[in-house]
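Give me structure tokens for this 147-residue protein.
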Amino acid sequence: KFYTQQRLKHQIDLIDRVYHDAELQELWSRLENKIYRFFDDTKIRPSLLHGDLWNGNIAEIADRPVMLDPSCFYGHSELDLSITRLFGGFDSSFYASYHKLIPKQNGFEKRQELYALFHYLNHWNHFGIGYRLSSLATIKKLLQWIR
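Here you go.
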């Protein structure tokens, strides 16, 4: 519920103040009360997350990783992975190592889309209408999965 109301709905409300996008509001009204279905049979153990983990926010110094510009909070471990795939991604060894420690649960790929939606909406708010189509397409995809 926190993710739905405090992350997604908050972003949609901010978009609505500026763009008054009727299609976004219509799609959101169909998705909002169904989001819980993406977590059926999912065990969530809160993890400390980076919050903005994309390839522009990592570096290496003396063979050690460095994470830049964190926006840390506790949440579902899968959440950080959603943004890693949006903006350049990481190599396959990163994901293989991650899933060796934290195996994928049923519905993982669909939740990645759900978690990516926050980033598309957030980017729409920060960087403009160029993220509208990605946001709407993601909501439509999610709605198809939970008919």
